[in-house]
Amino acid sequence: MSETAPEVPAAAAAAAPAAKAPAKKAKKAASASKARKPSGPSVTELLTKAVSASKERGGVSLAALKKALAAAGYDVEKNNSRIKLGLKSLVNKGTVVQTKGSGASGSFKLNKNRCKPAQKLP
């Protein structure tokens, strides 16, 4: 009596996980296909605004940029890595020039040559 009872549920149990696994994968694929739109401006836009608002001759430090973003309502502690990566990408693009330091540390100011319209040579 105990020999016949475990065999039937074991076969049903083996078939049940196989059926559930594709359903889970389908749900993950459906949720991954939906892209969330950001609710506000991007980090790079916020950083360029903060750098352009500064009147400092030597540029703005990373700490001052974080203070400006925090004052604007941006969660600096949560998005610290995004700020650093955004700052590095702005330096690589040439939008912002790094006057001191290396990486994401140091001082930054807007690239004057990048902001002006292209001039024709005679």
UniProtKB/TrEMBL annotation:
Q: Which InterPro entries match?
A: H1/H5, Histone_H1/H5_H15, WH-like_DNA-bd_sf, WH_DNA-bd_sf
Keyword Nucleus included in the entry's annotation: yes
Report the main location listed first in the record: nucleus
Q: Where does the protein end up?
A: Chromosome; Nucleus
Region Disordered: start and end of each range? Answer: 1-44, 101-122
Q: Where is the composition biased (Low complexity)?
A: 9-21
SMART domains, alphabetically? H15
- Extract one GO BP annotation from the record: nucleosome assembly
> What is the similarity comment for this entry?
Belongs to the histone H1/H5 family.
The protein, known as: H15 domain-containing protein
What is the organism of origin for this protein? Sphenodon punctatus (Tuatara)
